[in-house]
Design brief:
The protein is of the alpha+beta class. The chain folds into three domains: 42 residues; 85 residues, no CATH class; 151 residues, Glucose Permease (Domain IIA) (Distorted Sandwich), CATH 2.70.70. 38% of the residues lie in helices and 19% in strands. A hairpin with a 5-residue loop joins strand 7 and strand 8. It binds zinc ion (ZN).
Length: 293
């Protein structure tokens, strides 16, 4: 009887020891698993596609950022990328850039270390590609008294169902059909040309990065502009008009004379179409061109 009790006890200790052994083994495994999962989290930034697309920053602020980048010998696209990431792509508020040197540049290395390179890469290439590709405003500066535009991204549109405006409209101030030549902002290949219901006479140009630059509501195309043709930034592709909003090819006058400009970005962030707000980029290049005149 005594012996068997002792035996039972020792078996119980043996079992406890076994459990303890498992626990000791499991704890480091759990810690490793948590670290592993966290490393994945670090590769995903919490910015919605909508906020990326409606990217808002004034041309003055972009130019200020470029100045700072040059001053501190930081690559401009990289600086703009981290600044956009830190500020939710400028969707929440009008950013005050006046303290950027104290608040951002002095902590730049710490800010960069917050994100893995892999997680930042898609945002960086998105911004870098557009900044590098757009070499000119879509209208020559000699017409700068004839057009007017603002940030109309996200405004409501109703033709063809309720939707948001995914581009920038540049209006002819006097509503005159066909007077303002439209030039390609980038180098690229003409991928689409002709009529579509919403865009009227439109030209779509694919750049080297795979971005798609879309020019719509043209009155007519420039002679020789055709599908597959290579264009360089500054080439005239057509003339500002008011075509579109109809299944009937050639329909004019359903709205004021303007250019609808769209940029559909090629990005790893989504497999769906992503039309980014062109306004910050084109107002920046326009100001740059005006300043260098
Ligand atoms: Zn438009």
């Amino acid at each position: 009887m005594k012996k068997s009790l002792y035996y039972k006890k020792s078996k119980k200790y043996k079992n406890d020891y076994k459990i303890l052994k498992y626990i000791i083994l499991i704890i480091p495994l759990v810690i490793l698993l948590i670290l592993f999962i966290n490393s994945f989290d670090k590769d995903k930034l919490d910015i919605s596609l909508e906020n990326i697309a409606s990217f808002k920053i004034s041309s003055d602020n972009i130019m200020k950022l470029e100045e700072i980048a040059n001053k501190y010998n930081i690559e401009f696209s990289q600086l703009l990328t981290y600044y956009a990431i830190e500020n939710n792509f400028f969707n929440d508020k009008n950013i005050d850039i006046s303290n950027i040197e104290q608040n951002f540049i002095m902590n730049y290395d710490n800010i960069k270390n917050k994100y893995s390179k892999k997680s930042v890469e898609p945002y960086y290439s998105l911004i870098k590609n557009i900044l590098e590709e757009i070499q000119t405003f879509p209208i020559s500066l000699e017409y700068s008294n004839n057009y007017i535009y603002g940030d109309s991204y996200g405004a409501e549109r109703t033709y063809g169902g309720k939707r948001i405006h995914t581009g920038t409209d540049i209006m002819d101030k006097e509503n005159i059909i066909g007077r303002i030549p439209i030039i390609s902002m980038t180098n690229g290949i003409i991928q689409n040309i002709g009529w579509n219901e919403k865009g009227g006479y439109r030209v779509g140009i694919k750049s080297e990065s795979g971005n798609y630059y879309y020019y719509a509501h043209l009155d007519k195309f420039e002679e020789g502009i055709q599908k597959g043709k290579e264009v360089v930034a500054g080439d005239i592709i057509g003339y500002m008009g008011n075509t579109g909003y109809s299944k009937v090819e050639g329909t004019k006058g359903n709205f004021e004379v303007h250019l609808h400009l769209g940029i559909e970005v090629e990005t790893k962030l989504t497999k769906d179409e992503l039309w980014i707000n062109p306004y910050p980029f084109i107002s920046y290049i326009e100001n740059k061109q005006k300043n260098s005149k």
